[in-house]
Amino acid sequence: MKHFETYKRIKEEFCHLFNFKSHGNTLEIITPLVTITNKFVSVFITPRGDKLIVTDGGWIRQEVYDHSIISDDRDIVSTLIQQYKKYYHINQTSGDGNIFYFRSIDKIELLSSAVFDIANFIVGVVNSYSLEYKEKKEKEDRDNFKSETNDFLKQHYHKNFKSGSELVKGVRYNGILTINSRIHLFEYITGSSTRYYENDMRKAIVNFKLIEDNPIKEYVDNRIAVYNDVALGHEEISLTLKNYLEKHTNKTFVRSEFSQILSIIQPT
Amino acid sequence: MSEQINEQILKNYPLFQKVRYENKELVKNVINLEDEGSNNANYKHGKSFVKSKKLEDIEFIIEANKKDIKRYGFKLMSKLLCERPFFRFDASGCTHNNNSLLIPLTLRQITTPHFQYYDKEGYNTAYKTEELKDPDIISELEQDINKGAEIFCKESVTFTTGNRYPTINRDSGLLFKTNEIDLLKDIKFDEAF
């Protein structure tokens, strides 16, 4: 193998993957970098006065790379994105109902470096949104339990029930039921192993405890834990944790006895 | 993560092939794009059922960006076949990577406009027809969603009665009628957070 020829061939083929498109004053550079969602990364360059803005064009937020920004693992993903922003020196702004990641430069010598960093940033972030953080079986079991519980509650309480909602900023409950201005909070407990099951219990404890110092607690009638008693993780949970959770809930239901909820909270 | 291999299509590949090339009929001749039914506030949405001898639930779905005339796409979907669209066209947007061990690097990159389907290994694969490599045709379909519809219908073998193409009404809400518009022009890029 002739090294220089081989190197030249590889370099040319990589370079062949660069492309561009014009959008008015904005230049789109199609780069050779790809995401695990099978998309090539585009970086946008647009002038602002005597500066050049190098940006993702809002494509991350708009899910253009065939990724989803909504996930159960948003806490993990959020910390990853903050780390990527810091490492690649990326800023963020909003406009037109969208979020844009960008860097502003004032010297043409710094342009390629900015394109390089933004492109790598986009790869990191899109991949972070797209990776599986739980095993497939765990994800499927979890999604099924959530759907079943949500479907049951929606069927009986209709629009009074909202799944995956925030009551106070930054705290999302699996379900919030509002009837005659009284609030009932739901947290679902499931897991294909003791670890996942106990994580759900811890999350429920924290979420229910957070209400205690908030004035809205005057309107909250019930803090309800719904246990998936057929999940594998249910078998060996820590009694200490269970007792602690029960201190912060006033009602508990198990999956095999969903209908009991209806006798406690009357549908209108 | 979106699965690398579409297991559902792989299991049903002979059926997928038959549906792909079968002469299918769009129930609606005229499709109006509406806000309702769209998952994304930036897009309008339209659809028509498709008559097929092989599958009874095929839908032809249109998504069109409200501001950018050239950001639109068409999909054929059947939940009986698989969860994801089994054939699609994107007039513009991001570039696809054909992530196959058998394709040389330079041929893996497929810019828009392009079609996407699933190959016999179950991989989501993008490609251009000769029309989609022609700059004049690209320019025309970027300006006119009905030209895009014509191209999609021919390639997907989906027509209205009388072997014609549907008329898509994009409505008067479209803000920009030229593909030279700069979509970032209203964004300030202040050092925010």
Descriptive account of the structure:
The complex is a heterodimer of chains A (268) and B (193). By secondary structure, chain A is an alpha+beta fold. In chain A, helix 2 (74-88) runs antiparallel to helix 3. Chain A is elongated, with a radius of gyration of 25 Å. Chain A has helices at 3-15, 74-88, 111-130, 136-157, 194-211, 239-247, 260-264; strands at 19-23, 26-34, 39-48, 51-55, 91-95, 98-105, 161-168, 171-179, 182-189, 220-227, 251-254. Chain A has 2 domains: 3-130, Yope Regulator, Chain: A; 136-264, Restriction Endonuclease. In chain A, strands 1-2-3-4-6-5 form a 6-stranded antiparallel beta sheet, with helices on one face. In chain A, a hairpin with a 2-residue loop joins strand 3 and strand 4 (51-55). Chain B is globular and about 50 Å long. The relative contact order of chain B is 0.19. Chain B has 193 residues and is of the alpha+beta class. In chain B, helix 3 (135-143) packs across helix 4. Chain B has one domain (7-168). Chain B has helices at 7-11, 13-21, 135-143, 145-156; strands at 24-26, 30-32, 43-51, 59-65, 72-77, 87-90, 95-97, 109-110, 114-118, 124-127, 158-159, 167-169. Chain B has an 8-stranded mixed beta sheet with strand order 10-9-6-5-4-3-1-11. Chain B has a two-stranded parallel ribbon with strand order 2-12. The model of chain B has no long low-confidence stretch (mean pLDDT 88). Strand 3 of chain A pairs antiparallel with strand 7 of chain B.
